[in-house]
Amino acid sequence: MTQPMMTLNDGRRMPQMGTGIWQISDEATPRVVARALELGYRLIDGAAAYGNERGLGQGIRDSDVARDEVFVTSKLWNDAQGHDAALRAFDATMARVGLDHLDLYLIHWPLPLMDAYVETWRALIRLRDEGRVRSIGVANFHEAHLARLIDETGVVPALNQIELHPSLTQAPLRAVNAKLGVVTQSWTPLGRGDSFAAPAVTGAAARIGCSPAQVILRWHIQHGLSVIPKSENPERLAENLAALEVRLTEDEMAAIDALDRGHRTGPDPDTFDYRQSL
Question: Region Disordered: what ranges (predicted)?
Answer without folding.
Answer: 259-278
